[in-house]
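Lecture notes, unit on protein representations.

Consider one protein chain, 164 amino acids long.
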Amino acid sequence: MEVSIPHPVFSPFHMLVVLVGSFLLTAPSRGEEKMVLGPKQFEVDKSGGGAVLCAWSIYLSIQAQTAMCELPRRSTDDAIDEAIVAIDEFILANSSLKPTRAMLEEFKRRAASADIARGQARGLQNHCRSSDLERFRSIAPEQLRASVKKLLANPREPVMNPCL
């Protein structure tokens, strides 16, 4: 049973750039504890449940872009916010990294900063008019919630692959 995110929004190359950029920003500084993804998080989900970290990274990116572009809120945005909270809890409960909530929140702040930097480099107006962003935000909230419920149904190590 494969869980997929409805209406894939990024090419695999784009996702790789987004993910690597976001995760490189999480390198720990001396004396600081930060959530840093390791080889285990880049393994392939063999449970059939889906790549939790992949879905999470996409939702985080859509959330950051929506805020950065100051787009009017939709019910889908509420569903994305709910998905992120649910996935946060899943990661806290199941990740072998054993992140604290503070580490997870810092990781998310760094990912959002990477999205903002990418948007500014691309040109904010072009970035905000992305058809991918609009397509993802057009998913029915009920469909998104059902997809996340299915994705998180079975406890397991949250991994990145396969990612779209």
